[in-house]
């Protein structure tokens, strides 16, 4: 099996390199409005944002920042297939502007924007990120009533384009081979992910400003979402590509991908990570198999049996739908003019 992975340097408010209805899944984490590290980016897109911040008008700045994101959401509506899924990782912001402290609810604004475009909201996911400090933000110290809760979670908002689900031919191999294990389904499709934590990205050979603005989410998040909401042969789009975490996850999951990024300096960072992908894909796949076998052992110790055997792996499975599950690993990567071509094989246990 082969996949392609395009990387486009450009503005996601105009995805001219992506055809209409050519993408099955979007997985992305945009810059969060009213988080100071992205003030300059938003101001470059619309100087009125900088003017509003300087004038102490936080609400006007918030609205103008989301107006810039809205242009990207318009493009996602165009490029997604009917029934395609968009997964948007976003956090709310807390900030003092002109002496007033408040929360800016980014997740609510993104939710409203997608509904306005005819997307159907699906149940979302909360995942907890590590706090920046062991000390909580107190506001008024140890006395009520003016303390504030510390934000330690982010949202994965999930939307479906149109009112109907995607359809497949009966018994489609690309769908059944992309199955997940029963116990993975139970963990992944929970609305709170307690086993995923934020991570700091190590960016070599880039300037301090680029490093500060990388803010990539953990690999586990796009990898799970890609496995949950796409099949083999699908194309995954990340319009806020950054250091390419979504593309790495797509490679390991055996899907095609497109990444769009304003700054070409991030491509150099990604080039440094490519050599690690074959080993990473094997590690990820084998970890899934090891966790499944541990689950099988626990279930058998509890006196519960299995009715089915996996076709491609020496292990029992709970449901008939898991029988055809085939994990992929990366065997070879070839650089091309607009990205990479990847050859995949069937993952073999150690």
Kindly report the name of the CATH homologous superfamily.
Vaccinia Virus protein VP39
Task: Summarize the main sheet.
Answer: 10 strands, mixed
**Quick one: how many beta strands?**
14
Question: What is the spatial order of strands in the main beta sheet?
Answer: 8-6-7-3-2-9-10-1-14-13
The CATH architecture term is: 3-Layer(aba) Sandwich
- Can you tell me the CATH class? Alpha Beta
Distance between the termini: 21 Å
Characterize the quaternary organization of these chains. Answer: single chain
Task: Please provide the ordered H/E string of secondary-structure elements.
Answer: EEHHHEEEHEEHHEHHEHEHHEEEE
Outline the secondary-structure elements.
Layout: E1 2-9, E2 23-28, H1 39-45, H2 47-54, H3 58-79, E3 80-90, E4 93-97, E5 100-104, H4 106-116, E6 119-128, E7 153-161, H5 173-176, H6 182-188, E8 192-193, H7 208-212, H8 220-229, E9 235-238, H9 245-253, E10 256-261, H10 265-271, H11 277-301, E11 308-309, E12 316-317, E13 328-336, E14 339-346
Parallel strand pairs: 1-10, 2-3, 2-9, 6-8, 9-10
Antiparallel strand pairs: 1-14, 3-7, 4-5, 6-7, 11-12, 13-14
